[in-house]
Design goal:
single chain; 115 residues; 5 helices
Length: 115
C-alpha cells in the first residue's frame, strides 16, 4: 500500500481508517465522474441492505403496519439518510484529519465513500 506522506502513514498506524483502503489509480486525482460512480454504487448497495432489513422486519412482524401509515421502506427517505450520513462523515473527517493530510488527498469525498 502506498501512503501519501509520513504523517499519513503515522495516522493510519493509530487508526483503523486504512483498513478499508484499496489502491485505485483513478483516485489519484479527483474526478467528479469517478466520485459519482463510486457514490451511486455504494448508495445502491446501502439501499439494497436497507430494503432487505425492512423486508425481514415486516416478515417478522416487528413493524405494525396498521399503526404506521408510512410504507415500510421509503426509497426517497433512505436516499436522504445516506446523503446525510455522507455529509456528516465528511464534516467529521475534515475536523479530525490534520490539515497536511487533508491537502494531500485529492478529495476527501472519494475516501469517504468507503467509511
Amino acid at each position: 500500500m502506498k501512503y501519501f506522506t509520513k504523517e499519513w502513514y503515522e495516522l493510519c498506524q493509530k487508526s483503523s481508517f486504512h483498513l478499508a483502503l484499496e489502491e485505485e489509480q483513478q483516485a489519484e486525482t479527483y474526478s467528479e465522474k469517478y466520485f459519482q460512480q463510486l457514490y451511486n454504487t455504494e448508495l445502491k448497495s446501502w439501499l439494497d441492505l436497507q430494503e432487505e432489513v425492512a423486508t425481514i422486519m415486516k416478515n417478522n412482524e416487528t413493524i405494525n403496519t396498521t399503526d404506521n401509515k408510512e410504507e415500510t421502506f421509503n426509497t426517497e427517505k433512505a436516499i436522504g439518510n445516506f446523503h446525510d450520513g455522507f455529509i456528516y462523515n465528511q464534516e467529521q473527517l475534515q475536523e479530525k484529519l490534520p490539515e497536511t493530510i487533508g491537502i494531500a488527498l485529492a478529495k476527501l469525498k472519494v475516501y469517504l465513500i468507503y467509511l
